[in-house]
Amino acid sequence: SQTIHQWPATLVQPVGSPLSLECTVEGTSNPNLYWYRQAAGRGLQLLFYSVGIGQISSEVPQNLSASRPQDRQFILSSKKLLLSDSGFYLCAWTVGVSNTEAFFGQGTRLTVV
Amino acid sequence: GENVEQHPSTLSVQEGDSAVIKCTYSDSASNYFPWYKQELGKGPQLIIDIRSNVGEKKDQRIAVTLNKTAKHFSLHITETQPEDSAVYFCAASRYTGGFKTIFGAGTRLFVKA
Known about the structure:
The complex is a heterodimer of chains A (about 110) and B (about 110).
Chain A: E1 3-7, E2 10-13, E3 19-26, E4 32-38, E5 44-52, E6 55-58, E7 65-70, E8 73-78, E9 87-94, E10 103-104, E11 108-112
Parallel strand pairs in A: 2-11
Antiparallel strand pairs in A: 1-3, 3-8, 4-5, 4-9, 5-6, 7-8, 9-10, 9-11
Chain B: E1 4-7, E2 10-14, E3 19-25, E4 32-38, E5 45-51, E6 56-59, E7 62-67, E8 72-77, E9 86-95, E10 99-103, E11 107-112
Parallel strand pairs in B: 2-11
Antiparallel strand pairs in B: 1-3, 3-8, 4-5, 4-9, 6-7, 7-8, 9-10, 9-11
């Protein structure tokens, strides 16, 4: 069965420090991968999505970047965190070209202090 | 840009009553409309979805309706139970070489026993 792993679960980082969040998918090939951010009490904002290795589409210009070094690995990064980067970050995947259910990871709660 | 409006932001009902959450979307190319339930500290999980060629879909106590002309879609939960308490997100999606899914801001549903 397909599973998605996202880590760490919680993270407290000082302003100006770098960030690396990792997401891996098991049990499927060539997934579409997504990073979302959920600010407190708000909806899910799509940050990046990827349809293949090295292919990244950015939805919102900001202090973050994403990379996909392997088919089932998706990384969210920042060189210098801002206070406004705090939030709940979710990785998700879908498969195929028909509209399908998105499967979400458990999320990473990032607090920038 | 594309957006999805969701109302209400908070909904409190008595156990056994019905709950209705409404969404409107702006992207006329959207053709897939999932609803997700998010429990505290977890990633969202799909509870029901509807495609643009269908006007209504039902799964036990949950139903979704879609009016493509008006760009409205709604979630109906009947005979609510305390375990239905969670945050519910609507979303509108279309395939653009990856799924561009725009989420609503969420509705926090409280079901009082």
